[in-house]
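Look over both lines:
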Amino acid sequence: CSLACALELDGLGDANAEWIFRCGAAFAVAAGASVFFTDDAGSPDNVLWDIGAATATGAGSAMIGNLITVGAISLGGGSWTGTLTTGATATVGVGSTVIGNLIAFGVITVAANVETCDLTSTMGPITLGADAKTGAITTSGAFPITLGASAESGDLTSTNGAITLRAGATRPPPIPFSHCTRPTPARTPLYALPTT
């Protein structure tokens, strides 16, 4: 399955309109591809991507909704997406924004200058790159948490793993991260929205 263009979701004025996209195989989103609402009625909470294998997005892609995938998730640099849940590992590229939580059953690697809400891994370590910003971070078992230089996070919880903060890394953040709110764009591709 793939997405290589702008996909407009039109709720026809219905605030409760739902979209469910199912793919039993790997899902690829091309660089610069986008998914957005054409009117004010849509809600990102009502968009579901149900993927039966791995998902990879190209640089600068923008998707709304909740992405649930059996395989690994890999977001290209500068991507913008909603909540992510994977049965494997998750890699978030440089300068990306995840509007929502990221839950993985494997390793979570977040590159530099990424913004995301809470991160949870049940079967692997979590590593934040330099200047990354996130909400709470939780790992289970003996898996470590590592924050890169000048990274910011909320509460850090690791059952038995080490927690390492590189130079300038801080927790908890001085103010709540604005990227954890869920904007509903109208007639504007998500990649054009400011990420303040």
User: Anything to note?
Assistant: DSSP finds no helices and 22 strands in the chain. Residues 182-196 have pLDDT under 50 and may be disordered. The two ends are 32 Å apart (CA to CA). The longest strand covers residues 19-23.
